């Protein structure tokens, strides 16, 4: 019965449980740190319920977010709330109830745009709200953000606007010179004909 005198047979089990607990704590603190970095770097954060989505649908959402330049994280709400402390987007803490995911991006339009488009085709994906900096966003505000052009689209429009006048200026400047050259050529041709006739 039991082991040799003075040795507790439950001791190895206790040490294993303690080691597991230390590993769990380390993993949790690492996750909190990583989420904290995400919340500090993100320009916009969208919170949504994903209950009922299949693994394939979640993979599709992740792929669409990644292609657009955004990311998706699923984390325990309690750990996410701890990571939110002290960040600009801490206003989303009340939204973290139930099975929630967090979509985020550096571009304030990308994550909302992908989330809203995904919600249109997946009724079980429900946008709860989000944050842009310290500003809380309700679901309608997230949809309004999604309707805006992204930073890349805006940059392309600005470059197009800047480039278009330059092209027009070049055409206007070159047009009189071309006309002048044709007039000189016509006079030269006329003068050459007149000199040959004389």
Helix percent band:
55-70%
Q: What is the count of structural domains?
A: 2
Full CATH superfamily name of the largest domain: Ribosomal protein L10, N-terminal RNA-binding domain
Radius of gyration: 32 Å
Strand content: 5-15%
- Reading side by side through the largest sheet, how are the strands ordered? 2-3-1-4-5
CATH architecture of the largest domain: 2-Layer Sandwich
Strand count: 5
CATH class of the largest domain: Alpha Beta
Model description:
With 198 residues, this protein is an alpha+beta fold. It folds into two domains: 11-148, Alpha-Beta Plaits, CATH 3.30.70; 149-198. The protein contains six helices and five strands. It has helices spanning 11-41, 55-68, 77-84, 110-121, 139-147, 151-197, and strands at residues 44-49, 70-73, 100-105, 126-132, 135-137. Strand 4 and strand 5 form a beta hairpin. Helix 2 (55-68) packs antiparallel against helix 4 and helix 4 (110-121) crosses helix 5 (139-147).
Characteristics:
61% helix, five-stranded antiparallel sheet, Alpha-Beta Plaits, 13% strand, alpha+beta, 198 residues
In terms of topology, how is this protein built?
Blueprint: H1 11-41, E1 44-49, H2 55-68, E2 70-73, H3 77-84, E3 100-105, H4 110-121, E4 126-132, E5 135-137, H5 139-147, H6 151-197
Antiparallel strand pairs: 1-3, 1-4, 2-3, 4-5
Helix pairs in contact: 1-3, 2-4, 4-5
Short description:
By secondary structure, this protein is an alpha+beta fold.
């Amino acid at each position: 019965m039991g082991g040799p005198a003075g040795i507790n047979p439950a001791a190895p089990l206790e040490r294993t449980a303690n080691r597991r607990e230390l590993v769990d704590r380390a993993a949790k603190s690492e996750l909190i740190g990583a989420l904290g970095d995400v919340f500090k770097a993100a320009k916009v954060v969208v919170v949504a319920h994903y209950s009922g989505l299949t693994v394939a649908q979640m993979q599709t959402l992740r792929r669409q977010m990644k292609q657009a330049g955004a990311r998706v994280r699923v984390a325990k709400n309690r750990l996410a709330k701890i990571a939110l402390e002290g960040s600009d987007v801490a206003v989303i803490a009340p939204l973290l109830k139930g099975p929630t995911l967090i979509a985020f991006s550096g571009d304030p339009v990308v994550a909302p745009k992908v989330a809203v488009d995904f919600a249109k085709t997946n009724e079980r994906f429900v946008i709860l709200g989000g944050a842009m900096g310290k500003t809380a966003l309700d679901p309608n505000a997230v949809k309004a953000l999604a309707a805006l052009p992204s930073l890349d689209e805006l940059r392309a429009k600005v470059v197009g606007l800047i480039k278009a006048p330059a092209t027009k200026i070049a055409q206007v400047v070159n047009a009189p010179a071309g006309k002048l050259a044709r007039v000189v050529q016509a006079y030269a041709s006329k003068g050459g004909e007149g000199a040959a006739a004389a």
